Structures are given as C-alpha cells and as structure tokens.
Amino acid sequence: MAEATTPASVSAASGVPSAADTKKQTEQINKGRRRIAWAFIWGYLGVNLLMFLRFFFPRALYEPNTVFNIGYPADFALGIDQRYLMTNRVWVVREPDRLFVIFARCTHLGCTPEWKSTENKFKCPCHGSGYDNEGVNFEGPAPRPMDRAFVVLDPTGKVTVDTSRLFVDDPRAGVNHFNDVGAFLNV
Amino acid sequence: MAEDNAGNGRKPGVLDQVQELKETIQAKAKEQVEDLKQPEKTQLYRSIFRVKHDAEPRNRALSVLSNVFFHLHPAKVNRDAVRYNFTWGMGGITFYLFVVLTFTGVLLMFYYHPTKIQAFRDILYLENDVPFGKLLRNMHRWAAHLMIVAVWLHMFRVFLTGSYKRPREFNWCVGVLLLVLTLLLSFTGYLLPDDQLGFWAVTVGTNMARATPLLGNEGPFGSMMGMTPYNDVRFALLGGSIVDANALLRAYIWHCIAIPLIAAVFMILHFWRVRKDGGISGPSPVMLESEIKEEKGPRPVVLRPSGMDMHNR
After folding, report:
1. Is residue B117 part of a domain?
2. Which tens digits make up the pLDDT trace of A139-185?
3. Mean pLDDT on A76-89
4. Average pLDDT of the segment spanning B102-106
C-alpha cells in the first residue's frame, strides 16, 4: 500500500489535474483476484484435510460379524456357556426361565473378564472388577453390569445374536433395559 | 572487450584467442601441478575439509556459524549453561535418548513385521536368535522409559528455574507438545510386541477415547453428534471397532514414522527457540535497558543470569 500511494502524492505535488482520481484508483486496487486465488488455495487445503481425516475411517472391516447364530436354546445347559467367547466375545447364559447373552466387555475400561466357575463370578484381570453369574457388578471399579446383546429367535428356531445392539443397565443413570424385548428370550 | 575492439576497428579473431591461450596455458599448467603436489591447499579441498585458522574470536565464531553441525550449538555459551547443577542437562539427555531410540528403533524394524501372526514371533526371534537382538530391544525399552523420566525432569527443572516465563512462554508450549508426543510415542510402542500386556493396555487406553467429548461414542454429547463405535475417534485410531490387525499396523506407522517426524519438527522449533530466547538456563535473558519498552505502572525488573553479570565477577 505504501508504494501504491506514493505516485498519487507525487502527481498531486506536480499539479496534475487528475491527481485525486489517480489516488482514488490506486486505493481501489482490485483485490478480487487475489481473494479468489486465496479462496482456491484454502479450499484446496481444506478439502485435502477432510480427505485426510476421512482416510482414517475404513469402509470395510475384517472383524467378526456382530450378527451371528448360536444354535437352538436347548443346546445350552443351565449356567454360563463360553463357546462363543473366543469367536464373538459373548457368554450365553441359560437360566430356568430365560436365556440371555452377555457381551464380554468390562464396563470399567473394556477388558474381557474371566469366568471363574469355582468362585461363580466373572473377574476382570485388568483392574479387578467382579461380576456375579448374571454379569452384575459387585466389586472393583466397574460402574455398572456388563451389557447384554440383542437376541431373537429366527424362523428355524435358532437364536440370532447382534452385539452391535447392546442393552444397558445403569443404576446410577436410573436406566435398566435388561427386561426390554430383545434383551432375553423366554425358554 | 567489445568497446576496445570498436576502438581498434577490428573484431577478435581466432589468432588472437590462440595468442592469449599461449600466454596463459603455461601458468595454468604450473598451477595444476602445484595443486597436485599439495592437494590440501586447493580450494576444493578447503571447501570440504576443515582447515586450521588462527584462534581469534571472530574465526572461532565463523567456524561454528559456517558449519551445519556446529551451527546447532551457539557460538558462545553462557557460563550457566554448562553448570549441571543448574540445568541438570535433562533436555540434552532427552535428545540423546531420542537419537538412541531412533537408531535402535530402525534396527529393530529390520526384524519386525507389524502383522498379527508375525509380530509376537518376531519379538521372540529378536529375544532369542537375532545377534544382539536382545540388547537392541532392551536398549530401546530402557531408553524409552528413561526418555519419559528425562522429559518430566526437564520440565520440572524449567519450572523450578522459572524458565517458562517471558519471553519463553511459546517455547514452554512447544515443550508441552513435545511431552505429549513423547507419551504418544511410548503408548503406540506399547502395542507393537502384540503381547498380553500391550494388547490390554491399548484396549484400556483406547477405551478412554470412547469418552472423548463430542468425538467419542460414550463421551459427553457424543451420541448427539451421531457417534457410534463405528465412526468415533476410537474407530479412527484403531482402524476398526476392536484392537486387531489394523490397530497394530496403525500403531506401528504412528510409532515409527508419523510421530517421530512430527516430534523432530517440534524439536527443531524447540532448539531454535531456546537460542532465540537467549540461550538455555537462566531464569530470564539479558535485556538491554534500551530494549525495555516504557510501560505504565512499575518498571519491569531486569533479571540477569548470574554468569552474565559484568560487575560482580
């Protein structure tokens, strides 16, 4: 801007009649083009940043399917069944009147607890949370019972489980979805 | 040349050139023979290898300033800067450990595959069969632990000596970023052995990311932002919803390439800024009276590092 105003002041001193016009013209430098150029540059960088961030979210996952079939309810004896723990991270719990599926993730910080059949409890090896044989916390830092996965009988009478649909019982928040439809099966 | 010829009224011909060459060629040949006799006197030699100069202050300063490796160190160092009971040398030790970690880390990369099947096998291979593999792995491990300790002690020293104060506020912030990067390097390295300890540590660590405000599926306002276990910040870190092959590969790339590069850039900034702010040590740099801007209220106190006080020592 300093250079731009100098010719105007010089011409004003020399008495050129159009001095005021020249000054006006130099002050009205067309900034439109540089604004457009900068808009393109920032837009380009911004779009690239968004692409960069999107890049970190894969579309296809090579993980175990969250929806899977565990067979007939009658396949399970009373108590805790660990058949699907290694493959799908769930325990199937059969009680006299109902069957439900516990998602094997500690509600403290997400480790997989162990089923201690001799002590009749689940115990998390990371920070010592303990859960009873229904997955309800009674010791350690866990804030709430372990979540239960969605269960439904398919037309052939087999049980389909979906671990992407979890039912939460959080006494502190005052919500209990363990008796909702889909949280258990009557058997 | 053109003007001379115009004055003479004739253009230079081939004959003139030959004549000129005849006069100079002998001198040139003699010069080259002399060079061959004493190659260390040639300009080429002197441009590559260091030459002895008279030990004047100016030459000393120039030899430092004109050499990239010496250039990293200031030409003159404050007396306090070499007093270990003042600086503890923790910044330098941290940098030294970073160099050790880079070197041993690159060597470890020659024997490590970041895949689920091979990662832990490679650890066993490094521990038991690779020549000096156990030594390398332990050097990497202990240097990593020591670097964390050294970074904290460095920060503690800077805090105790008040070196975070004006004009070093910016460098303190850069230092805090470097601390975070150091911790992230440590954390990403934790998963790489793919053993039980690292696996569950990363499980726990990334589960905390679920609770990130806005960006985590279990964090405050997370569900309002539409976060699920399949699109939140934890998902981006792990490359999936569980700690699996993608997470291992991502930890590897962050650990070996991305974070070291970012940390190196910030280290350059950090070291440059140390010198720009008046050198290391010392609670406050020397300021000339004339440099102090008049401010309303009481005059700022001019503090000098003890070694810089001209009158008492």
Report:
1. yes
2. 999 999 999 999 999 999 999 999 999 999 999 889 999 999 999 99
3. 93
4. 97
ipTM score assigned to the predicted complex: 0.73
Per the structure, how many domains does chain B have?
2
Residue A8 tokens read as 């105007």
Cross-chain Cβ contact B239/A126 below 8 Å: no
State residue B74's pLDDT score: 73
Residue B168 sits in the same domain as residue B265 = yes
Residue with tokens 């160190």: B73
Instruction: Give the helix/strand (H/E) hosting A185.
Output: strand A185-186
**pLDDT tens-digit map of B245-275:** 999 999 999 999 999 999 999 999 999 998 8
Beta carbons of B240 and A126 less than 8 Å apart: no
Q: Which positions 236-255 of B are in contact with A (Cβ < 8 Å)?
A: 236, 239-242, 244-246
Residues of A in contact with B208 (CB under 8 A): 109
Q: Does residue A31 sit in the same domain as residue A110?
A: no
B 187-216 residues with CB < 8 A to A: 200, 203-204, 206-208, 210
Domain coverage including residue A108: 67-186
Quick check: B4 pLDDT over 90?
Answer: no
| Contact criterion met (CB < 8 Å) for A56 and B239 | yes
Residue B267 domain-assigned? yes
**Beta partners for A170?**
A175
Q: What is the pLDDT of residue B66?
A: 77
In a domain, A167, yes or no: yes
Print the domain residue range for B21: 14-61
| CATH for A102 | 2.102.10.10
Strand spans (E) along A34-180: 67-69, 79-81, 90-94, 98-103, 114-116, 121-123, 130-131, 137-139, 148-153, 159-167, 169-170, 175-176
Question: Same structural domain for residues A143 and A181?
Answer: yes
CA B94 remoteness from chain centre: 11
Question: Which residues of chain A make contact with B204, given a CB cutoff of 8 A?
Answer: 109-111, 126
Query: Widest CA span of chain A, in angstroms?
Result: 107
Judge: B207–A62 Cβ closer than 8 Å, yes or no: no
